[in-house]
Write a structure and sequence with these properties.
This protein is an all-beta fold and about 120 residues long. About 0% of the residues lie in helices and about 55% in strands. Strands 2, 4, 5, 6, 9, 10 and 11 form a seven-stranded mixed β-sheet that branches. It has a four-stranded antiparallel β-sheet with strand order 1-3-8-7, with no helix packed on it. The chain is globular.
């Protein structure tokens, strides 16, 4: 059974930091590109950051460049999102995503974790 379990969300003041973590199980983690998406109320789900299956390449949405850092630990099957200098516009439910094309296309989602940035 495939599971992507996010943790680390919560309430933080503007300018603060949070670290999200996603623990993957039931998949060959090393075959998957891992991403974080977010969805604010009334808005579409948007891509925040991606790290390739080898960890060699990362990509970020323009709105988070320089503030967020995505990383993965292949030994632990985890992918983290370090979020710094948070603003109210970062408030959203954050979702972990695993996607692969090698040996057949597969995609999985976590259940999401709420991040609220407010004073």
């Amino acid at each position: 059974q495939v599971q992507l379990v996010e943790s680390g969300g919560g309430l933080v003041q503007p300018g603060g930091s949070l670290r999200l973590s996603c623990a993957a199980s039931g998949i060959a983690f090393g075959f998957y590109d891992m991403s974080w998406y977010r969805q604010a109320p009334g808005k579409e789900r948007d891509l925040v950051a991606t790290i390739t299956r080898t960890g060699g390449t990362t990509n970020y949405a323009d709105s988070v460049k320089g503030r967020f850092t995505i990383s993965r630990d292949i030994a632990k099957n985890t992918v983290d999102l370090q979020m710094n200098n948070l603003t109210p516009e970062d408030t959203a439910v954050y979702y972990c995503n695993a996607r692969k094309e090698i040996f057949g296309e597969r995609e999985y989602w976590g259940q999401g974790t709420q991040v609220t940035v407010s004073s």
